[in-house]
Amino acid sequence: MASVVNDSCVKCGACAEVCPVGAFHVGEKQMVIDPEACIDCGMCIAECPQGAIKSADEADEKWVKFNAENAKNWPAAK
Asked: pLDDT (tens digit, 0 to 9) for every residue of the chain, 78 residues total?
């Protein structure tokens, strides 16, 4: 199961820097994770200073859907 970013995200980019598969995408207000790319390694969860990333099985369903929908529409993080 993939990790999920919620609205506590401040787009600091710490998560994208440690992601080994480049699963993060950048939106206007927050980052999202592409669930098809995420390997659920947990590195981003440990790195996020805001605590904005959870495992999808622990996250609110609205954030699971939000991440999946918006990862397709937003550019990948560099």
From this structure: 899 999 999 999 999 999 999 999 999 999 999 999 999 999 999 999 999 999 999 999 999 999 999 999 999 998
Q: Is residue 56 part of a domain?
A: yes
Q: For residue 42, what are the domain limits?
A: 3-71
Q: What is the pLDDT of residue 77?
A: 93
CB 44 within 8 A of CB 29: no
Number of Cβ within 10 Å of residue 48's Cβ equals 21
CATH number, position 54:
3.30.70.20
The one-character DSSP state at 77 is P
- d(CA 41, CA 21) in angstroms, rounded, equals 10
Nearest to 77, CA basis, from 39, 38, 27, 40: 27
Domain count, the chain: 1
